[in-house]
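[SOLVED] Need 3D model of a two-part complex

Original post:
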Amino acid sequence: MSSGCPMLEVKGLAKRFAPRSGQGLPPWVLADLSFHVAEEEFLTLVGPSGAGKSTLLNIIAQVDGVNQGEIYFRGKLIETANGAALKPGWNCQIGYVTQDDNLLPWRTLYENVTLPLKLQGRFDAAGKERVNELLRATNLMGFERYYPHEMSGGMRKRAALIRTLAYDPPIILMDEPFGAVDAQTRTQLQQDLLRLWYRGGKTIVFVTHDIGEAIALGDRVLVLSKSPAKVIAAHKVDIKRPRDLGNVYRLDGFGEMFEAVRRDIQ
Amino acid sequence: MSIAVSRPLLGPAATRSLVPLGRIAVGAAGIVLWQIASNAMGSEWLPGPAAVLARIWQLTVSGELVRDTLVTLWEAVAGMVLGGATGAALPFILRLSPRLMTALEPLISAGFGLPKLALAPLFILWFGIGITTKVVFVASIVFFLMFYNGLAGILSVDPRLIAMLRVAGASEWAISREVVWNTAKPFLFSGLKIALPRALSGAVVGEFIAADSGLGWYIQNERSLNDVTGVVAGAVIVTVLVMAVNAVLQRIQARSLSWRAVAKDMAL
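Solution:
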């Protein structure tokens, strides 16, 4: 961005969990982890399972604290290891789509999707229209009264996604949001996500262990090392958009990039 | 389709209508067995269904049935409000302070183990033989049942749902109301399902010990008069009362927990 100030900047993060009583200090999960995300960038982070990817997102979302390092949001220091109280979601500026859909089982699809708006006191005409538009865009119209247990895995993932999009945080963290669905549904969900992102105004930090997904979605792919995690490589994805995710493997440059990322992960 | 599917003889609608029929059949069999037992033992030891029914009718006409039922019901309900409500509310308060919870839990556990019947003489000493004693007695029983069910509900709250709501801008109060309350609700209903019958039987037992009205007092009074028919009639009335209370509770539960993925036939 021309301002020179990244949307989000993570500097020298280090994290270890508190020791259990009677045991020594647990190992570091993150060590000296740094990266930045530009405004409206789609950044993907790829790394082996158990590398601490979820921990990283929990820290950025301020669900969890950090031992060392700083996080800046549009140039403003928002988190550091100074013991100050965490502010999950940083005043609804940082959205978080977790691995599990975490829909409330006692609420219908519509109630789940509109809940953040209601909690923030923003469930007005504009909010309603936005929710309806998102429901239409993700083919969930007509299922508003379904409870989560009545919905398919793909529907639940879509509901979790638009629940966060509905309240319009400028940056959204995503933790393998399309993990436990079949390949076809997954491609559909990725396509939905990109279509919503093309509308603009959203910065996305997307974590996955799937190299193909990281390349297919991202503007930039960062490779994380095994635990303790740090960024060991960065790849700019030059595949032009819009991308046909159904045939992403045939796109120009995909194969080479896949190989390069795979080598880094070793 | 070439695969042979073994189908039940009756469709789902027919199967469902079999349930009440089955209930009636089992109930009728019980009454027949009761009559046989009564014949074998002699009606001075176990009066037959007809005699008991006649007695219940007589009590209904005289107004005693309504009066004593209302007394017992009132004691049970007041005990539920006094003990059950506080027992159910306490875990929600203790949730805010894990340290207080750790400190109090063994004490509450000790209180649970204490046989309440052994305290009855103390209750009589403090509260006399009026309704208050029975209310306190019932409260001392149901408090623990509601507390432990409420606690189980609080402990089964999914921390991921709480984290999700916090990120989405929920206040602590909104989290309590939305996640904690809705998670605990099925547990509180399970608690009520155990505590309500216990409240009624607690009131009856309390009346055995000291009372001048109520169903327990009636049963005890008939026993002292050696009127076995009255004793059995009293027991039958208490049983019917418990069944009625359960039926009401089930209606409320079905409405309030309709979101759950429970098979309709399994909903108890």
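Edit: The CA atoms of residues 176 and 208 of chain A lie 5 Å apart.
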